[in-house]
Amino acid sequence: MAPSSTKSAYWKGVRDGTPFILVVSPFALLFGVVATEAGLNVFETMAFTIVVIAGAAQFTALQLMSENAPTIVVLASALAVNLRMAMYSASLTPYIGAAPMWQRAIAAYFTVDQAYALSIIEYENKPTLTVPERMAYFFGVITPVCPNWYFFTLVGAMVGQSIPPAFALDFAVPITFLAMIGPMLRTPAHMAAAAVSVTFAIGFAWVPYNLGLMIAGIGGMITGAQIELWTERRAQR
Amino acid sequence: MIDRVELWIVIIGLGLGSFGLRFVFTGIIGDKNLPPWVLRHLRYTAVAVLPGLVAPLIVWPAATGGHMDPARTSAAIVTLVLGYFFKNVLLAIFGGAATLYLGLYLIG
Protein backbone atom coordinates (compact mmCIF):
# COMPACT_ATOMS: atom_id res chain seq x y z
CA MET A 1 0.00 0.00 0.00
CA ALA A 2 1.28 3.44 -0.94
CA PRO A 3 0.58 6.10 1.73
CA SER A 4 -0.19 8.66 -0.98
CA SER A 5 -3.03 6.55 -2.39
CA THR A 6 -4.67 6.08 1.04
CA LYS A 7 -4.30 9.82 1.59
CA SER A 8 -6.04 10.63 -1.68
CA ALA A 9 -8.78 8.05 -0.89
CA TYR A 10 -9.28 9.79 2.47
CA TRP A 11 -9.60 13.23 0.88
CA LYS A 12 -11.96 11.92 -1.80
CA GLY A 13 -14.13 10.65 1.08
CA VAL A 14 -14.01 14.07 2.75
CA ARG A 15 -15.08 15.77 -0.50
CA ASP A 16 -17.91 13.28 -1.11
CA GLY A 17 -19.12 13.53 2.49
CA THR A 18 -19.09 17.32 2.79
CA PRO A 19 -22.46 18.03 1.06
CA PHE A 20 -24.12 15.76 3.63
CA ILE A 21 -23.39 18.35 6.32
CA LEU A 22 -26.51 20.06 4.94
CA VAL A 23 -28.58 16.91 5.58
CA VAL A 24 -27.17 15.95 8.97
CA SER A 25 -27.02 19.37 10.66
CA PRO A 26 -30.76 20.24 10.63
CA PHE A 27 -31.59 16.73 11.92
CA ALA A 28 -29.05 17.06 14.70
CA LEU A 29 -30.35 20.53 15.55
CA LEU A 30 -33.89 19.19 15.70
CA PHE A 31 -32.88 16.30 17.96
CA GLY A 32 -31.20 18.73 20.34
CA VAL A 33 -34.33 20.90 20.42
CA VAL A 34 -36.80 18.00 20.80
CA ALA A 35 -34.68 16.34 23.51
CA THR A 36 -34.59 19.48 25.63
CA GLU A 37 -38.35 19.95 25.06
CA ALA A 38 -38.78 16.41 26.45
CA GLY A 39 -36.91 17.49 29.60
CA LEU A 40 -33.36 16.27 28.93
CA ASN A 41 -30.53 18.59 29.96
CA VAL A 42 -27.62 19.42 27.66
CA PHE A 43 -25.37 16.70 29.14
CA GLU A 44 -28.04 13.99 28.78
CA THR A 45 -28.83 15.10 25.23
CA MET A 46 -25.15 14.97 24.21
CA ALA A 47 -24.59 11.60 25.90
CA PHE A 48 -27.60 10.25 24.00
CA THR A 49 -26.39 11.53 20.64
CA ILE A 50 -22.74 10.47 21.11
CA VAL A 51 -23.45 7.02 22.54
CA VAL A 52 -26.21 6.07 20.09
CA ILE A 53 -25.32 8.15 16.96
CA ALA A 54 -28.47 7.11 15.01
CA GLY A 55 -31.05 9.84 14.40
CA ALA A 56 -34.21 7.86 13.67
CA ALA A 57 -33.65 5.49 16.62
CA GLN A 58 -32.97 8.45 18.93
CA PHE A 59 -36.22 10.16 17.90
CA THR A 60 -38.11 6.87 18.34
CA ALA A 61 -36.73 6.26 21.83
CA LEU A 62 -37.40 9.85 22.90
CA GLN A 63 -40.99 9.77 21.63
CA LEU A 64 -41.78 6.48 23.39
CA MET A 65 -40.13 7.59 26.65
CA SER A 66 -42.29 10.75 26.54
CA GLU A 67 -45.33 8.45 26.23
CA ASN A 68 -44.10 6.53 29.32
CA ALA A 69 -43.72 3.29 27.39
CA PRO A 70 -41.98 0.48 29.33
CA THR A 71 -38.18 0.52 28.92
CA ILE A 72 -38.11 -2.83 27.13
CA VAL A 73 -40.60 -1.55 24.51
CA VAL A 74 -38.54 1.64 24.05
CA LEU A 75 -35.39 -0.39 23.46
CA ALA A 76 -37.04 -2.98 21.21
CA SER A 77 -38.72 -0.35 19.01
CA ALA A 78 -35.63 1.84 18.65
CA LEU A 79 -33.40 -1.16 17.90
CA ALA A 80 -35.92 -2.37 15.31
CA VAL A 81 -35.55 1.02 13.59
CA ASN A 82 -31.79 0.40 13.66
CA LEU A 83 -31.91 -3.12 12.24
CA ARG A 84 -30.91 -1.66 8.87
CA MET A 85 -27.45 -1.08 10.40
CA ALA A 86 -27.01 -4.86 10.48
CA MET A 87 -27.74 -4.89 6.76
CA TYR A 88 -25.14 -2.16 6.18
CA SER A 89 -22.67 -4.18 8.21
CA ALA A 90 -23.43 -7.31 6.18
CA SER A 91 -22.99 -5.54 2.86
CA LEU A 92 -19.72 -3.79 3.86
CA THR A 93 -18.12 -6.99 5.14
CA PRO A 94 -16.85 -8.35 1.78
CA TYR A 95 -15.02 -5.04 1.22
CA ILE A 96 -13.56 -4.18 4.63
CA GLY A 97 -13.80 -7.50 6.49
CA ALA A 98 -10.02 -7.99 6.09
CA ALA A 99 -9.10 -4.71 7.85
CA PRO A 100 -7.59 -4.83 11.37
CA MET A 101 -10.09 -5.44 14.17
CA TRP A 102 -9.61 -2.01 15.80
CA GLN A 103 -10.37 -0.28 12.47
CA ARG A 104 -13.47 -2.41 11.95
CA ALA A 105 -14.64 -1.61 15.49
CA ILE A 106 -14.25 2.14 14.95
CA ALA A 107 -15.90 1.90 11.52
CA ALA A 108 -18.80 -0.02 13.09
CA TYR A 109 -19.46 2.81 15.56
CA PHE A 110 -19.49 5.32 12.67
CA THR A 111 -21.66 3.21 10.33
CA VAL A 112 -24.35 5.83 9.69
CA ASP A 113 -26.65 6.07 6.65
CA GLN A 114 -24.45 8.55 4.74
CA ALA A 115 -21.17 6.71 5.43
CA TYR A 116 -22.67 3.44 4.25
CA ALA A 117 -24.37 4.85 1.15
CA LEU A 118 -21.29 6.69 -0.14
CA SER A 119 -18.81 3.93 0.71
CA ILE A 120 -20.73 1.09 -0.92
CA ILE A 121 -21.06 3.12 -4.15
CA GLU A 122 -17.31 3.87 -4.15
CA TYR A 123 -16.37 0.22 -3.43
CA GLU A 124 -18.64 -1.09 -6.18
CA ASN A 125 -17.41 1.48 -8.72
CA LYS A 126 -13.71 0.91 -7.95
CA PRO A 127 -13.15 -2.82 -7.38
CA THR A 128 -9.34 -2.35 -7.49
CA LEU A 129 -9.24 -0.29 -4.26
CA THR A 130 -7.09 -1.89 -1.57
CA VAL A 131 -8.53 -2.53 1.90
CA PRO A 132 -6.54 0.38 3.47
CA GLU A 133 -7.83 2.69 0.70
CA ARG A 134 -11.40 1.56 1.40
CA MET A 135 -11.01 2.24 5.13
CA ALA A 136 -9.41 5.64 4.34
CA TYR A 137 -12.37 6.55 2.12
CA PHE A 138 -14.85 5.49 4.83
CA PHE A 139 -13.09 7.59 7.48
CA GLY A 140 -12.91 10.47 4.99
CA VAL A 141 -16.70 10.43 4.56
CA ILE A 142 -17.42 10.51 8.29
CA THR A 143 -14.92 13.32 8.96
CA PRO A 144 -17.30 16.13 7.90
CA VAL A 145 -20.52 14.23 8.80
CA CYS A 146 -20.21 12.92 12.37
CA PRO A 147 -18.57 15.89 14.16
CA ASN A 148 -21.34 18.09 12.71
CA TRP A 149 -23.93 15.64 14.05
CA TYR A 150 -22.52 16.19 17.56
CA PHE A 151 -22.02 19.93 17.15
CA PHE A 152 -25.50 20.74 15.86
CA THR A 153 -27.14 18.55 18.51
CA LEU A 154 -25.33 20.75 21.04
CA VAL A 155 -26.57 23.93 19.32
CA GLY A 156 -30.13 22.54 19.32
CA ALA A 157 -29.91 21.60 23.00
CA MET A 158 -28.67 25.09 23.91
CA VAL A 159 -31.38 27.01 22.00
CA GLY A 160 -34.16 24.43 22.58
CA GLN A 161 -35.46 25.79 25.86
CA SER A 162 -35.90 29.30 24.45
CA ILE A 163 -38.33 28.28 21.66
CA PRO A 164 -41.94 29.36 22.50
CA PRO A 165 -44.87 26.88 22.27
CA ALA A 166 -46.38 28.83 19.31
CA PHE A 167 -43.85 27.04 17.10
CA ALA A 168 -45.82 23.78 17.58
CA LEU A 169 -42.67 21.71 18.10
CA ASP A 170 -44.90 18.81 19.18
CA PHE A 171 -45.21 18.15 15.46
CA ALA A 172 -41.49 18.25 14.65
CA VAL A 173 -41.13 14.51 15.30
CA PRO A 174 -44.08 13.37 13.12
CA ILE A 175 -42.93 15.64 10.27
CA THR A 176 -39.35 14.37 10.49
CA PHE A 177 -40.47 10.74 10.41
CA LEU A 178 -42.93 11.30 7.55
CA ALA A 179 -40.18 12.99 5.55
CA MET A 180 -38.00 9.89 6.05
CA ILE A 181 -40.87 7.48 5.25
CA GLY A 182 -41.69 9.11 1.88
CA PRO A 183 -38.43 8.16 0.12
CA MET A 184 -38.57 4.64 1.67
CA LEU A 185 -41.74 3.75 -0.26
CA ARG A 186 -39.78 2.53 -3.28
CA THR A 187 -41.69 -0.65 -4.16
CA PRO A 188 -45.21 -2.10 -3.70
CA ALA A 189 -43.72 -4.29 -0.94
CA HIS A 190 -42.49 -1.23 0.98
CA MET A 191 -45.87 0.49 0.53
CA ALA A 192 -47.77 -2.56 1.73
CA ALA A 193 -45.47 -2.87 4.77
CA ALA A 194 -46.11 0.79 5.64
CA ALA A 195 -49.88 0.45 5.12
CA VAL A 196 -50.10 -2.62 7.38
CA SER A 197 -47.93 -0.87 9.96
CA VAL A 198 -50.27 2.16 10.06
CA THR A 199 -53.44 0.03 10.15
CA PHE A 200 -52.14 -2.21 12.95
CA ALA A 201 -50.73 0.73 14.96
CA ILE A 202 -54.14 2.45 14.92
CA GLY A 203 -56.13 -0.79 15.31
CA PHE A 204 -53.99 -2.08 18.19
CA ALA A 205 -53.49 1.30 19.89
CA TRP A 206 -55.62 -0.02 22.79
CA VAL A 207 -53.03 -2.71 23.63
CA PRO A 208 -51.15 -1.67 26.82
CA TYR A 209 -47.41 -0.88 27.14
CA ASN A 210 -47.22 0.44 23.52
CA LEU A 211 -47.12 -3.17 22.36
CA GLY A 212 -49.41 -2.15 19.49
CA LEU A 213 -46.31 -0.72 17.81
CA MET A 214 -44.52 -4.07 18.15
CA ILE A 215 -47.51 -5.81 16.53
CA ALA A 216 -47.50 -3.19 13.76
CA GLY A 217 -43.74 -3.60 13.19
CA ILE A 218 -43.85 -7.39 13.00
CA GLY A 219 -46.96 -7.28 10.78
CA GLY A 220 -45.32 -4.76 8.46
CA MET A 221 -42.09 -6.78 8.16
CA ILE A 222 -43.92 -10.01 7.34
CA THR A 223 -46.11 -8.19 4.82
CA GLY A 224 -43.11 -6.59 3.07
CA ALA A 225 -41.21 -9.89 2.91
CA GLN A 226 -44.23 -11.85 1.62
CA ILE A 227 -45.10 -9.28 -1.07
CA GLU A 228 -41.46 -9.25 -2.20
CA LEU A 229 -41.44 -13.06 -2.44
CA TRP A 230 -44.74 -13.06 -4.33
CA THR A 231 -43.53 -10.36 -6.76
CA GLU A 232 -40.32 -12.31 -7.46
CA ARG A 233 -42.20 -15.55 -8.10
CA ARG A 234 -44.61 -13.83 -10.46
CA ALA A 235 -41.71 -12.23 -12.36
CA GLN A 236 -40.05 -15.63 -12.81
CA ARG A 237 -43.10 -17.16 -14.48
CA MET B 1 -41.32 13.81 32.71
CA ILE B 2 -38.89 11.12 31.61
CA ASP B 3 -37.55 8.99 34.46
CA ARG B 4 -33.77 9.44 34.87
CA VAL B 5 -32.98 5.80 35.51
CA GLU B 6 -35.01 4.77 32.47
CA LEU B 7 -33.30 7.44 30.35
CA TRP B 8 -29.82 6.13 31.17
CA ILE B 9 -30.85 2.51 30.69
CA VAL B 10 -32.16 3.49 27.24
CA ILE B 11 -29.06 5.52 26.32
CA ILE B 12 -26.65 2.75 27.32
CA GLY B 13 -28.81 -0.13 26.08
CA LEU B 14 -29.53 1.55 22.76
CA GLY B 15 -25.87 2.51 22.37
CA LEU B 16 -24.66 -1.06 22.99
CA GLY B 17 -27.45 -2.52 20.85
CA SER B 18 -26.80 -0.16 17.94
CA PHE B 19 -23.07 -0.85 18.07
CA GLY B 20 -23.83 -4.57 18.16
CA LEU B 21 -26.00 -4.31 15.04
CA ARG B 22 -23.30 -2.34 13.24
CA PHE B 23 -20.50 -4.67 14.32
CA VAL B 24 -22.26 -8.02 13.94
CA PHE B 25 -21.06 -8.75 10.40
CA THR B 26 -17.96 -6.63 9.77
CA GLY B 27 -16.57 -7.53 13.17
CA ILE B 28 -17.77 -10.97 14.14
CA ILE B 29 -19.33 -13.01 11.37
CA GLY B 30 -16.86 -12.06 8.63
CA ASP B 31 -18.04 -12.89 5.12
CA LYS B 32 -20.54 -15.63 5.99
CA ASN B 33 -23.96 -14.82 4.54
CA LEU B 34 -27.29 -14.61 6.32
CA PRO B 35 -30.16 -16.79 5.10
CA PRO B 36 -32.17 -14.91 2.43
CA TRP B 37 -35.40 -15.01 4.45
CA VAL B 38 -33.74 -13.11 7.31
CA LEU B 39 -32.38 -10.44 4.94
CA ARG B 40 -35.81 -10.20 3.30
CA HIS B 41 -37.40 -9.29 6.66
CA LEU B 42 -34.54 -6.96 7.64
CA ARG B 43 -35.17 -4.93 4.47
CA TYR B 44 -38.61 -3.89 5.76
CA THR B 45 -37.89 -3.12 9.41
CA ALA B 46 -37.65 0.67 9.11
CA VAL B 47 -40.66 0.97 6.83
CA ALA B 48 -42.65 -1.34 9.13
CA VAL B 49 -41.84 0.50 12.39
CA LEU B 50 -41.70 4.22 11.54
CA PRO B 51 -45.20 4.54 9.94
CA GLY B 52 -46.72 2.72 12.93
CA LEU B 53 -44.93 5.07 15.31
CA VAL B 54 -46.08 8.18 13.50
CA ALA B 55 -49.72 7.29 12.65
CA PRO B 56 -51.15 7.74 16.19
CA LEU B 57 -49.28 11.05 16.55
CA ILE B 58 -51.19 12.36 13.51
CA VAL B 59 -54.61 10.87 14.30
CA TRP B 60 -54.50 11.79 17.99
CA PRO B 61 -52.06 14.75 18.43
CA ALA B 62 -51.26 15.32 22.12
CA ALA B 63 -51.07 19.12 21.67
CA THR B 64 -54.77 19.33 20.69
CA GLY B 65 -55.94 16.98 23.43
CA GLY B 66 -56.10 14.05 21.01
CA HIS B 67 -58.40 15.61 18.40
CA MET B 68 -57.43 15.53 14.73
CA ASP B 69 -56.54 19.01 13.66
CA PRO B 70 -56.63 20.35 10.06
CA ALA B 71 -53.28 22.21 10.27
CA ARG B 72 -51.41 19.13 11.55
CA THR B 73 -53.19 16.71 9.22
CA SER B 74 -52.45 18.78 6.10
CA ALA B 75 -48.83 19.26 7.20
CA ALA B 76 -48.51 15.49 7.52
CA ILE B 77 -49.97 14.88 4.04
CA VAL B 78 -47.75 17.53 2.40
CA THR B 79 -44.62 16.11 4.09
CA LEU B 80 -45.33 12.55 2.98
CA VAL B 81 -46.21 13.55 -0.60
CA LEU B 82 -43.08 15.73 -0.97
CA GLY B 83 -40.86 13.01 0.48
CA TYR B 84 -42.37 10.37 -1.78
CA PHE B 85 -42.18 12.32 -5.05
CA PHE B 86 -38.91 14.21 -4.57
CA LYS B 87 -37.01 11.63 -2.42
CA ASN B 88 -35.64 14.62 -0.54
CA VAL B 89 -35.99 14.50 3.25
CA LEU B 90 -35.08 18.13 3.94
CA LEU B 91 -37.42 19.49 1.25
CA ALA B 92 -40.22 17.41 2.78
CA ILE B 93 -39.49 18.68 6.31
CA PHE B 94 -39.44 22.32 5.24
CA GLY B 95 -42.60 21.89 3.10
CA GLY B 96 -44.39 20.20 6.00
CA ALA B 97 -43.30 22.84 8.51
CA ALA B 98 -44.41 25.65 6.16
CA THR B 99 -47.82 23.98 5.75
CA LEU B 100 -48.16 23.57 9.52
CA TYR B 101 -47.38 27.22 10.26
CA LEU B 102 -49.59 28.45 7.43
CA GLY B 103 -52.41 26.24 8.70
CA LEU B 104 -51.99 27.38 12.31
CA TYR B 105 -51.90 31.01 11.15
CA LEU B 106 -55.04 30.71 8.97
CA ILE B 107 -57.13 28.49 11.26
CA GLY B 108 -55.66 29.58 14.58
Automatic annotation (TrEMBL), chain A:
GO biological process terms held by the UniProt record: L-valine transmembrane transport
GO cellular component: plasma membrane
Residue ranges crossing the lipid bilayer per the database entry: 20-40, 135-157, 163-182
Cell location: Cell membrane
Key words of the record: Cell membrane, Membrane, Transmembrane, Transmembrane helix, Transport
Protein's membrane topology: Multi-pass membrane protein
Highest taxon of source: Bacteria
Any Pfam family matching the protein: AzlC
InterPro entries xrefs: Brnchd-chn_aa_trnsp_permease
Family: Belongs to the AzlC family.
Protein name as catalogued: Branched-chain amino acid ABC transporter permease
Automatic annotation (TrEMBL), chain B:
Originating organism: Shimia litoralis
Keywords: Membrane, Transmembrane, Transmembrane helix
Protein's UniProt name: AzlD domain-containing protein
Taxonomic superkingdom: Bacteria
Pfam families named in the record: AzlD
Segments traversing the membrane: 7-30, 42-63, 75-107
Lineage: Bacteria, Pseudomonadati, Pseudomonadota, Alphaproteobacteria, Rhodobacterales
